[in-house]
Amino acid sequence: MADALHFGRAAEELGMAQPPLSQSIRRLERELAVELFDRSGRRVSLTAAGQALVPEARAMLAVDRRLRARMAEVRAAAARPPLRVGLVPETPASVVRELLVGLTEQAPDGEVDLREIPGAEQLRMLLDGRLDVGLLRHPVADPELRTVPVAEERLGVVLPRLSGLARQPQVALGELAGHDLVLFPRRTSPEWHDEVLARCGQGGYVPERVRAAENAEVLLALVVAGRGVGLLAEEAARHEPRVVWRRLSGEPLQGRVFAVRPTRSAHPLAARFAEAVARARSDSGSGSGSGSGRPGTVGNLPGLAGIGDSTGPWAVVYDA
Predict the structure, then answer these.
(1) SS3 for 70-105, per residue?
(2) Distance (Å, rounded) from C-alpha 55 to C-alpha 255?
(3) DSSP string for 265-307
(4) Residue 302 domain-assigned (yes or no)
(5) N- to C-terminal Cα distance for the chain?
(6) Looking at the structure, do residues 67 and 96 belong to the same domain, yes or no?
(7) Whole-model pTM?
(8) Residue 110 and residue 309: Cα distance in Å, rounded?
(9) Is residue 112 part of a domain?
(10) What does DSSP assign to residue 186?
(11) Which terminal residue of the chain has fewer beta carbons within 10 Å of its beta carbon, N or C?
């Protein structure tokens, strides 16, 4: 009415008859004990009280719209199933941390279900609808799946602290000859497992034995016990004081993480998942990430030591 300054046009814009509109305005004027409109002339105009009320009324309506929109989001989040995310056991802790930070910004009321699943099984689950997003160590060439790179990390060698090689600032792959290699099981990421061994061979290191470690903790324990050397990102080795991490000389060995989702994903958050992770890692300014979400608690998922407890308010369900 304040915009139209005409009862008939205002009622038409509101989709109502003129008498109920006039009655509503009269009731409001009685409640406020003021006249909002001057009806004495040929044209309706706002009184001083009406002019004072208009900006306040607009602000109240804006708050009402925001409140209704927010409540609609809350209702939608409550009805939305958790985003099911698959992780291969050797997924870097920094990726998981920033995954949660990124998704907190996208949907603070959402829920994510993190599951440790070997790569081959993840692909089957993605294709048959049992998984929404997979974090894999290799891209996937399948027209029904979309692959987006989300992280890259430089791998180095993990050695017992008393090893002679530990005194060197860098270690060449060829200098590891005679040591067994501790690596994640091939079944978790066959392509990446084979690529690591191929790169070792190109560098002059062909281990006599490759020992399988299901997660970083087992790998570090085997290195401490003298059962071999490991290849890990520096962050993963920081939590074990009895080992040292050394950069590999020559061409770097880069570990990669890809987010894979069905091209026609049914989950509303799946399409934004990879972008959220990549943005969080970019904003952190480093490959290891430093997440700064609001306080929250993350449970213990094997192989993900060092996630910390500042991952944001997402409700997280772990299913190893």
Answers:
(1) HHHHHHHHHHCCCEEEEECCCCCHHHHHHHHHHHHH
(2) 57
(3) --STTHHHHHHHHHHHHHHHTSSS----PPP------TT-TT-
(4) yes
(5) 61
(6) no
(7) 0.56
(8) 18
(9) yes
(10) G
(11) C
- Indicate whether 90 and 35 sit together in one domain: no
CA proximity to 165, closest of 79, 253, 230, 109: 230
Give the range of the structural domain holding residue 36, as residue numbers without chain letter.
Answer: 7-78
Residue 50, helix vs strand vs coil: helix
- What is residue 65's three-state secondary structure? helix
Looking at residue 29, which CATH number applies to its domain? 1.10.10.10
pLDDT in tens, 11-52: 888 889 989 989 999 999 999 999 999 988 788 999 999 999
Q: For residues 228 and 213, give the distance between their C-alpha atoms in angstroms, rounded to a whole number.
A: 11
pLDDT tens readout for residues 103-123? 777 667 678 888 988 888 899
Residue with token string 């570990």: 255
Residue 86 belongs to a domain with what CATH number? 3.40.190.290
